[in-house]
Amino acid sequence: MKAETNEFQELAVKCMKQVKNKLYFQFRSLSPAIYRMSMEYTEPGTGVFGTDSNKIYADPMAIVINYKKSPNVLMRSYLHMLFHCIYLHPFVTKPGLDIGIWNLALDICCESAVSRLDVKSIAIDGDMERKQVLDDMRLKIKMFIPELVYKELSSNVYDIASLAVLFHMDSHLWLEQSKSKSSNGQSNQNQNDSQKNSDGNSDGDANDNSDNTKKDKNDENGNDNSNSNSNGNENGNDNSDSNNTGNGNNNQGNNQNDSSSSSSTRNEQKKQEWSDVSRQIAADMNSFHKQGTNPGEFMQEIDYLTKDKMDYEDFLREFSIIEEKMMINQDEFDYMYYTYGLNGMKNAAGNKTEDKQVLLIEPLEYKEEKVIKDFVIAIDTSGSCSGDLVKRFLNKTYSILKESESFSSRVNIHIIQCDAQIQNDTKITNMEEMEQFMKNMKLYGFGGTDFRPVFEYVDTLIKNKEFDNLCGLIYFTDGYGTYPTKPTPYKTAFAFLEDYSSRDNVPSWAMNVFWKDESPTHQ
Predict the structure, then answer these.
(1) What pLDDT is recorded for position 253?
(2) Do the beta carbons of residue 418 and residue 438 sit within 8 Å?
(3) What is the pTM of this model?
(4) Residue 267 CA to chain centroid, in angstroms?
(5) In three state form, how does the secondary structure of 142-168 look?
(6) With contact defined as beta carbons under 8 Å apart, do 451 and 482 qualify?
(7) Which of 475, 476, 484, 474 is closest to 505 using CA atoms?
(8) Which residue, among 406, 483, 496, 425, has the nearest Cα to 450 in the 3D structure?
(9) Of the chain's two ends, which shows fewer C-beta atoms within 10 Å, N or C?
(10) Which residues neighbour 218 within 8 Å (Cβ) at sequence distance 6 or greater?
């Protein structure tokens, strides 16, 4: 059996070498990914062919059989698998989704990328059917991003089972590993809880029995010190064992946390490596090699997928300044009192002595914090922006400012509503006024869209010394309007609804944040 396994592996190595070489000469732009992962062969008969972004796991017997039937099938499966990594699918976690539809969405995204290449020379059965599905879906979604494809597939107009068979090319090993880790974590947690309950019951029973024994002995013989001491020693030993068990569980928990942290770090490093590979492939495909159809679409998808995302709360902190607050600072203390105490205190004779050193630690009465004080929130109230969406954006921003320490006790926030001209400006100076505005919010405008009046108005406010130190301006909009061309002396950001549209017309000097109803993420 072992000799047969070795024979299959030797043949599989030769087959995969042929596959990689052919793909390299046909698709030079994919060269950073083609030879990137090493092969690890499983036992023959498992049928595995997939990757976890680190290695490729494959059944050698299946490789040999498929290559003998049609090398094109193996080449297409390998291409499909590479695009999972190029699109960073192994690093995307979406708990709570239908795993079957999610798997299909990932496969459709990969086949969309493969279809843009010139794959006529490696055509396989089902290409026409897959092309028809992709063409129909391309009319309904802006990019082949897993979230958009999943949303489209969930509309219940697709035969999920048939599509899953049509687009299936490889094993999604990273999802299986994720489920395995989750299952092991739950198992360890249950085991620890069971151990704690067991230890608790055991200790409780031992103590109850000990108390009953002591009570019975004292009733029969009076004060029996020897029995009392004996019971005390036994209880002490039991407690020692219990503590040892507790320490063991704590050490085990610490080891698990360290392992989890190390695994997370490795995962982030691997994600960064594949992000760099993806950008290189997109650039090569778009400029040097000009391979495939619509390389710009591929570039757009890679650009979106590889951009770093930031939590919206952290994004708002980009507009904060450092301010001293009058409050006890438990993290720092006055070094003058500390040094004075180390030099020694005076004795009865009035002389300082080294043997009377005292640690005088007096906390500072001020603390430096990052706060948002002078700030402008501009709202696009043109006809293309939904009023409910604007209110949800303001509610999200307000809740973050309210719950965090970023909101200064005295603020100077201007909430400006504008369509093609300034419609309203509400000044907020404290938390109470902000709460009152949120309760009685009214929107004005709903005409055309021009962003320039807001910046001209803010320049006027600055000239009139309305702001002491303007932290920045964030402009919520759908993005369809006239942008200013002159850079601002303060931080500026445009906040868009996450609709996967291109925002190439945003000025290069401005930041942009793509906002979702649930949680905005910065790019």
Answers:
(1) 54
(2) no
(3) 0.64
(4) 12
(5) CCCCHHHHHHHHCCCCCCHHHHHHHHC
(6) yes
(7) 484
(8) 483
(9) N
(10) 224
Identify the pLDDT of residue 335: 60
Q: Which of 98-112, 193-207, 252-266, 483-497 has the lowest mean pLDDT?
A: 193-207
The answer to whether residue 185 scores a pLDDT higher than 70 is no
Indicate whether 4 pLDDT > 60: yes
Other CB atoms within 10 A of residue 268 CB: 11
For tokens 């230890």, the residue is: 199
To the nearest 10°, the Cα dihedral for 489, 495, 496, 500? Answer: 90
Tokens of 276: 């760099």
Backbone Cα Rg of the chain: 33
Q: Is the pLDDT of residue 94 over 80?
A: no
* pLDDT at residue 225 tops 70: no
Give the position of tokens 């999610």. 102
- Please give the backbone phi and psi of residue 111, each rounded to the nearest 5 degrees, phi first: -70, -30
Residue 284 DSSP label? I
pLDDT(20) > 50:
yes
Locate 502 and state its tokens.
Answer: 């291109």
Contacts of 20 (CB under 8 A, 6+ apart): 34, 35, 78
More confident position, 3 or 124 = 124
φ, ψ dihedrals at 519, nearest 5°: -155, 120
End-to-end CA distance of the chain: 54
CB neighbour list of residue 55: distance below 8 Å, 6 or more residues apart? 37, 38, 39, 40
| 45 Ramachandran zone, left/alpha/beta (phi>0; psi -120 to 50) | left
314-336: average pLDDT? 66
Mean pLDDT across the stretch 143-168?
91
Task: Answer yes or no: are the C-beta atoms of 393 and 495 closer than 8 Å.
Answer: yes
Instruction: Return d(Cα 457, Cα 443) in angstroms, integer.
Output: 18
pLDDT class of 55 with cuts at 50, 70, 90: very high
Over residues 290-307, the mean pLDDT reads 71
Taking only the tens place, the pLDDT of each residue in 431-472 is 888 888 988 888 888 888 899 999 999 999 999 999 988 989
Contact 412, 374 (CB under 8 A): yes
Between CA 469 and CA 44 the distance in angstroms is 69
CA distances in angstroms from 403 to 313, 320, 321, 415, listed in the order given: 10, 15, 18, 19
Contacts of 163 (CB under 8 A, 6+ apart): 104, 108, 133, 153
pLDDT recorded at residue 479: 81
Give the Cα separation of 291 and 287 in Å (integer): 9
58 within 8 A of 26, measured Cβ to Cβ: no
Nearest of 250, 229, 236 to residue 207 by alpha carbon: 236
Write down the H helix ranges in 404-493. Answer: 431-439, 452-463
Selection from 426, 450, 453 nearest residue 438 by Cα: 426
Whether the per-residue pLDDT at 382 is higher than 50: the answer is: yes
